[in-house]
Amino acid sequence: MAESIDIPVVIYNLQMLTGIDLSPSLVGRIAAECPNVSGLKDTVTEYFHTVGALREAKRLRPDFSVLSGWEDLILPSLLAGADGSICALAKVAPKLFVELVHSAQSGDLAKAAELHRRVLSLITFGVYSNPPISAIKLAINKLGVLIFPAVRGPALLVPEEAHEKVEGVLREAGLLTVRDVG
Question: What own/partner pairs with CB < 8 Å and gap ≥ 24 does 98-104 have?
């Protein structure tokens, strides 16, 4: 596919939904053989997969971007040499995620660790809706961005009794104060 187009392509490894894993050696081969493939979004639960993809692709193409897909692996992946992240929760607090990446890349590990802890608190949105898209949309609304709350089935809206809990997660992450919702 990459050979049939001349625009940059990012490959997406999401084995949990596709049932197919793009192995680190395959990622390295794609990096070597497909110059318009500019990177990988590695949405895997196994950190060592991302480390392997980094090792395989970067030794052949230092400009090849490796991006973490899961929020809890952003900081460890950055420390291993990843270039950043593409993840769902960045829609809630883009500045938080950008600061995390910049802090890690500039070597301010104390700041990066503090930001990482804030990011980890957002992961609990999954408790309030499954998939978490409903809670993400509610959180964005709570932060003052008007977004249509509807979701497509089988996803459901966050139950009314969980709205305060979503606000609590935003407060824990330092994104919302009591004044913001009162």
Answer: 100/74, 100/75, 101/74, 104/75, 104/78, 104/79
